[in-house]
Design a protein that fits this description.
Rossmann fold, 33 helices, six-stranded parallel β-sheet, 11% strand, 5 domains, alpha/beta, Arc Repressor Mutant, subunit A, 49% helix
Amino acid sequence: MLEHAQRILKDVFGYDSFRGRQGAIIERVANGGDALVLMPTGGGKSLCFQVPALLREGLAVVVSPLIALMDDQVATLDELGVAAAALNSTLSADAQREIAERIKRGEIKMLYLAPERLVQPRMLSFLQNLDIALFAIDEAHCVSQWGHDFRPEYLQLGQLAELFPNVPRIALTATADMRTREEIVQRLHLQNAERFLSSFDRPNIFYRIVPKEQPRKQLLSFLGARKGDAGIVYCLSRKKVEEVAAFLSEQGFPALPYHAGLANELRAYHQKRFLNEEGLIMVATIAFGMGIDKPNVRFVAHLDLPKSLEAYYQETGRAGRDGLPADAWMAYGLQDVIFLKQMLNNSEGDERHKRVEQHKLDAMLALCEETRCRRQALLAYFDEEMPQPCGHCDNCIDGVQTWDATEPARQALSAIYRTGQRYGVGHLVDVLLGRDNDKIRAVGHQHLAVFGIGKALNEGEWRSLFRQLVARGLADVDLEGFGGLRLADSCRPLLKGEVSLQLRRDLKPQQSAKASSSAASQLVRGEERSQWEALRTLRRKLAEEHGVPPYVIFPDATLLEMLRSKPSTLAEMARVSGVGARKLDRYGEAFLDVLGAADEAPRAVLDLRHELVSLARAGMTPAQIAAQLKCSEKNVYGMLAEAITQQQLSLEHALDLPEALLAEIQDAFLDGEGELPTAAAIGEQFAGRVELGVLHCVRAALQAEFET
């Protein structure tokens, strides 16, 4: 069975071997068993049901929550030569009838349905008259009533166990803690399913969380090293989405807004552009993302705090699905905490539900203020232990400074208490710093014992301290009033002097040395850039011709392997990961042509240089060589200098200079210590007497002498 599965993997999908537990999952489902699969985004979940579907007789039914995801997978399968279709509300009645007829005739292998359509009695009755290969329930965490992606229709999918008792079911998700996993098993009746729990770790993602100071300026700094990369910027409100998208566009970053308040057609248009174009930034609320299968999203940025670690993990997980380097960046501040706590307080739901949501928010805050490795803390939340720090997050790279904040924290808590537990951070900082302004005088706070006692810290340090007091639960937000701070019961031991307090010291932006460097932007080296762009241009052209997103033709990871392995025949191209039989037949020659053409250019340069060396040795001057080779004298001098550097040509053969002038030029280069100056640096001394190219050649000869 596994041997047959590996043949399908190579012939259809173009991959040489299964990753992680894919092989075991495929074997389980292909043999008729149920499975619960927990696998991180980009881990290859789709193959876990697509390969068994091709191994088993009959129609494979895939439950998917979003039309965008269905359409994307159908387009991908079509490019691979697999007959797939999606039945959804975007189709006319005639189109739906035609798909139904094709299914009856056995012409379709994989059918994608939304959960609400699948559970309609008419659809279930239709499927009961067919030979069903398997049911795949994608994004299975949507069944959890505690989750942020809850879909009530998923609760009805449990009936598949009774209606189709002999059909294997595979439930898949990338985001499920222990509690959610149990809920999936219970509600989908998967008690006999084998559980395949892969690591939650996404090692290719670099995590960075910074204190929010000037968020737009901070975002621009982050994006500066990522021009041309596709990414997502998440904001909490629709208004902020619109404003940030407009701001980024003004700053030269192509950005589109996406939120539930936009017209359906405009949302769909923006999503299509994001999938089909290179280097676009989507500024969005959490309405955007689930089911986005674009593998080369190189960064996800949060300008506001997510509500939970599940949300953060899932949203950041939309970066780097292709396994190549990606960045997860977030700016977070106290105002985020206040806003989310107010939202939670005003939300519907019983006290138990609110307690669960508060617990999730507290875990999110703990990650932001974490002094250990971020990845270790994130994985621990999902019940996974990482023995060693990852070395690939801001805390590991920059290091974390902590300080004894016991006394300043007591001062801050005293200021909260003595001002009546109703003021925000701005007013409290003014009191501690002893600022004698109108607002302070209006309420008489200049007479308090805490007025001016905090001058040992500056405003930024006090704001950081208050943020961390709230994050640690030592101070709380007055949700009944205007969001002022009040004491939490847990601060008593600190106020009584029974415990001490160590807090994280926020790094200044310049101290965070690697903040602006982008691992993702370094995918290709300088000398590879033109060939890389040529491959991407061809991919974009083919994608437009076939009406699919570029990554459906080939993902970046496949293009990168082509670039590095440089196949020159179809047989060599077939060995590139991601090039299956169908794609090899369709696109192999076109990509070989681009790779071959790129190799022609260096060969042409080599031929030209070979001819130049011969002409120089024959006694031709640079001007005569330029006329012979039909190029500029500047180019000739450049090639002569390179030939001298590589010791293919002597200076005497390259140039016919009077001895006195040559000695004068050599002295100018050697007049000093250390490295030779550049030709431009001594150019002024010889302006009007010799060409700059002559100086380049003399310098090349001196350099060659030093190195031998």
